[in-house]
From TrEMBL:
Keywords, comma-separated and alphabetical: Hydrolase, Metal-binding, Metalloprotease, Protease, Zinc
Needed cofactors: Zn(2+)
Parts of the chain that traverse the membrane: none
Co-factor binding details: Binds 1 zinc ion per subunit.
Gene3D superfamilies on file: Metalloproteases ('zincins'), catalytic domain
Molecular-function GO term, any one: metallopeptidase activity
Organism: Rufibacter roseus
PANTHER family reported in the protein's UniProt record: METALLOENDOPEPTIDASE OMA1, METALLOENDOPEPTIDASE OMA1, MITOCHONDRIAL
Enzyme Commission (EC) number: 3.4.24.-
Domain Peptidase M48: 76-255
Root EC class: hydrolase
Protein name, as recorded: M48 family metalloprotease
């Protein structure tokens, strides 16, 4: 569909007020959400294609159909973790979003991120840094929560505003959309969420893990405890430059676990070291 200049002006003038009146929702943090679930999915697909292409070109994207048996085994292990979390009964958009997970080979990057629509990326440096499957499940739960609670789209919406919404809604300004998508790729891994969103994702991580009846529901606390120890030694990982200090987060996660009455003992999985070996 091609819009005339007049149509574009009319769209810009009248669609945002309509959205404000009836097309948006408000989350418990008071943030308006102008995007529909379908918009999340559409944007997520575009961003995921670009992310895949970017890291594939660098030779860092570990392909699911790789001829390397270790890579295939690593994906099978990772998929089981994600499947348990998604089947916890706590994921709001369990059946709406893609929830595919991909590995990026970068031993120095202690990070993971999720796009709108539930495309999850995990850097191998994070996997090597963690000590247990419960800790990895906790971090994955945190990232799933960012997508499931639509934090990513809300944060991007704040940054790009109506122009971003307009480009996505019109769908015919491919050059502008490609430019914006390129910017998003560069920001996702380092996207700085508000403290409210980080706290909410920590809380949901507890709910997701607790709902599995398999993982220690405070699994994410182990990751932040490691971060806190590194910070106290004066050698904070780069991860901390885009995430709130882990100091209070360990206590908050453990408090949430106590409130929920969920199990905080480790799953006892003895295969995590073997999983790490697959990615070395």
């Amino acid at each position: 569909m091609t819009f005339t200049s007049t149509a574009r002006i009319l769209f810009f003038l009248f669609v945002p007020p309509l959205l404000l009146l009836g097309g948006c929702g408000t989350d418990k943090n008071g943030d308006h959400v102008f995007f529909s679930i379908e918009d999340d999915i559409a944007l997520g697909q575009q961003v995921a294609r670009q992310v895949d292409s970017t890291y594939r070109a660098k030779g860092q994207l570990l392909e699911r159909n790789s001829s390397n048996p270790n890579t295939r085994r690593a994906y099978a292990y990772l998929d089981k973790i994600v499947e348990r979390l998604l089947n916890s009964g706590q994921v709001t958009h369990r059946d709406d979003f893609a929830w595919d997970v991909k590995l990026i080979k970068d031993p120095d990057n202690l990070n993971a991120f999720a796009t709108p629509g539930g495309h999850i990326y995990v850097f191998t440096g994070l996997i090597q840094y963690l000590d247990s499957e419960d800790q990895l499940a906790g971090v994955l739960g945190h990232e799933i929560a960012h997508a499931d609670q639509r934090h990513t789209i809300k944060q991007l919406q704040k940054q790009y505003g109506i122009s971003f919404l307009l480009s996505l809604a019109l769908g015919d300004n491919s050059g502008e959309l490609e430019r914006i998508t390129g910017q998003i790729i560069g920001q996702l891994a380092g996207l700085k969420f508000s403290r409210d969103y980080e706290r909410e994702s920590d809380d949901y991580s507890v709910l997701y893990l607790g709902g599995t009846d398999y993982y220690a529901c405070d699994g994410a606390a182990g990751f932040f405890q490691k971060m806190q120890n590194a910070e106290q030694r004066g050698n904070p990982p780069e991860f901390l430059s885009t995430h709130p200090s882990p100091g209070n987060r360990v206590q908050n996660i453990q408090t949430k676990a106590q409130q929920e009455g969920c199990a905080t003992t480790r799953s006892g999985s003895s295969n995590y070291e073997q999983f790490k070996q697959l990615l070395r």
